[in-house]
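Board notes (copied after class):
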Amino acid sequence: MKTILNTKNAPEAIGPYSQGIDTGKLMFLSGQIPICPTEGKIIATDIEGQTKQALENVKAILESCGCTMDNVVKTTVYLKDINDFVKMNEVYKEFFKEGNYPARSAVQVAALPKDALVEVEVIALRE
């Protein structure tokens, strides 16, 4: 089973991809940049605000298929500047319960779509 995830509570895909795929047991979410879904553009200018919006977008997609951030088993965080890691991490940890943190990779990249400072993709497990 493969179901395309699509919610108006997260930004529409800006290319030939879907917000995510639900396989019944695993959900694979496309990387979310900090586009505000109601405005259709990036509003926040700092790493903290952009991290919060990117994770709110992830949360909205997960909720569209009956999951929460507690279902996340793996995240990949792409940063425009690795020096933003500590500030990103302060916001990131607010979205996950201590003792239930997902596995994570964080890397610096040369550039992100829409000149974003951060992008977050996740894999979630339906229990």
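Comment from the instructor: The CA atoms of residues 31 and 49 lie 17 Å apart. The mean pLDDT is 97.
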